[in-house]
Write a structure and sequence with these properties.
Layout (H helix, E strand, L loop, with lengths): L1 E6 L4 E8 L1 H18 L12 H32 L3 E11 L6 E9 L12 E6 L4 H14 L2 E4 L9 E10 L2 E14 L21 E7 L13 E15 L5 H5 L8 H35 L6 H18 L17 H21 L5 H12 L5 H9 L2 H21 L3 E6 L2 H4 L3 H5 L3
Helix pairs in contact: 1-2, 3-5, 5-7, 5-10, 6-7, 7-10, 8-9, 8-10
Length: 439
């Protein structure tokens, strides 16, 4: 077998592989003999069809099957020989596949980039710290009560927090627009579910009132034709209802799957859940910052094959999240929707691998165990969940990967300049992009 490699770009390689005709013909002959043992043709007994007849009848198909297998085997042997690690599958183009002549093909593929990690001591990272206060717990309990509130109709002007039932129609430049009309629509004032100014304009309105609202669509509104446009909404108020909050009793506690018997134990459970959420939020923000700095300091070109694979994964994930199931083909979602996110994920993945290799990081088994136990503690039978993880190699490896990411973060932070900033609970649990626009 002859192999030659040409570098066509920073990451692309073209490998020409030539396989001796003798190997192809030998493999074809073996496959013809195997086929002859089971071939059934009119005029011949099973297994007695002459090889010449079998080759004439099935030879072309057999040869194509053999060439497919030879391509796989010889490509694998060639990259091993040349010490090349392909990133993704190759594109194959036949160069010569004539009978009796050496078989030659060209494999075009990408390789992983060579990375020389920059000194991370140049990075400056903000590390948020926070804690759950009694006031935070009171606010959370109040939020949970509002979620379970009943509504009672009132004969007074609408206030912030009330629910109004309305009919409305919107106009831009005097013309009604698509999607701007509804009847019998329930709206909680102050919920922020409508465009700015809409809900505020209904505070003070009474049942039966006709209200005209002059508002502006946000510049970043999802409908292109409405972005930044001034609009007039004509609104009819049908009913005004105020919330009636439920009592803090066992029936209320059970709605959240908690076994609390009194307010104090309920608040303790709420605190535990909030502290778990806070810990995870702070950890994810710090990790996002560290990885963003890692990408910023190490500009690398990433293989498009890996980006395309990640785009496909993000498409499938999006379909599952929106309940598309089998009804929506993930490939219908535009590639551009996921391209930046996919490229960043691939970049981070490659750089993290380099850090792992350079620092010789291996998964800390004690941290793996601690992570599994943290995942299990939210279930009724934690030990069963722990046993399940340790009995499922695939799931345990996912946990190990997460732990190794945490270890990479710790390793990088050990050399970076870290500025601790204390923030309130509500600020701490906001997703990173809401705070600083991080990806």
């Amino acid at each position: 077998m002859q192999v030659s490699v040409e570098t066509t770009s920073a990451l692309e390689r073209q490998m020409t592989i030539t396989v001796p005709a003798e190997r192809i013909e030998s493999d074809v002959d073996k496959r013809v003999q195997q086929t002859a043992r089971t071939a059934r043709l009119d005029g011949f007994r099973p297994g007695k069809v002459p090889l010449k007849v079998v080759k004439k009848r099935y030879g072309a198909g057999i040869r194509q099957d053999v060439l497919g297998e030879v391509i796989q085997q010889s490509f694998y042997e060639a990259v091993q020989q040349e010490k090349i690690v392909p990133a993704g599958s190759p594109q194959i183009e036949f160069k010569n596949d004539k009978d009796g002549e050496d078989f030659a093909f060209v494999a075009t593929f990408e390789v992983y980039p060579e990375v020389e990690l920059a000194d991370f001591s140049a990075a400056e990272v903000e590390k948020q710290t926070s804690s759950v206060t009694d006031a935070d717990i009171e606010q959370m309990v109040d939020t949970l009560r509002k979620q379970q509130a009943d509504w009672t109709a009132v004969e007074r002007a609408a206030q912030d927090g009330d629910r109004v039932n309305i009919d409305f129609e919107g106009f831009v430049d005097g013309e009604a627009f698509e999607g701007g009309k509804a009847e019998g629509h329930d709206l909680v004032l102050g919920s922020g579910s409508m465009i700015p100014g809409f809900e505020d304009g209904l505070v003070g309105a009474e049942v039966g009132a006709d209200v005209e609202l002059n508002v502006n669509f946000p510049e970043e509104y999802h409908a292109e034709e409405l972005k930044g446009k001034a609009a007039v909404f004509k609104v009819k108020v049908n009913t005004v209802s105020e919330p009636v909050l439920p009592e803090l009793d066992k029936a209320f506690f059970e709605k959240f799957g908690l076994e609390a018997n009194d307010v104090e134990s309920f608040q303790a459970e709420v605190r535990s859940n909030m502290e778990r959420e806070l810990k995870n939020a702070l950890k994810m923000k710090l990790k996002d910052q560290v990885f963003s700095k890692l990408v910023e300091l190490n500009a690398i070109e990433v293989p498009s094959a890996l980006v395309d694979t990640e785009i496909d994964a993000l498409r499938r994930q999006a379909v599952q999240q929106f309940g598309g199931g089998q009804d929506l083909d993930p490939n219908m979602l535009p590639k551009e929707m996921f391209e930046d996110q996919a490229k960043r994920r691939v970049t981070v993945g490659l750089l993290v691998q380099e850090v792992v290799k350079a620092a010789e990081i291996t998964a800390d088994e004690a941290r793996v165990r601690e992570t599994v136990e943290e995942l299990a503690e939210t279930y009724q039978e934690p030990q069963q969940v722990i046993d399940w993880y340790y009995g499922n190699e695939e799931m345990l490896n996912q946990v190990k990967s997460l732990v190794m990411e945490d270890q990479v973060v710790d390793h990088l932070l050990s050399s970076a300049k870290v500025n601790e900033v204390a923030v309130a609970y509500e600020e701490a649990i906001k997703p990173a992009q809401q705070n600083n626009g991080a990806e």
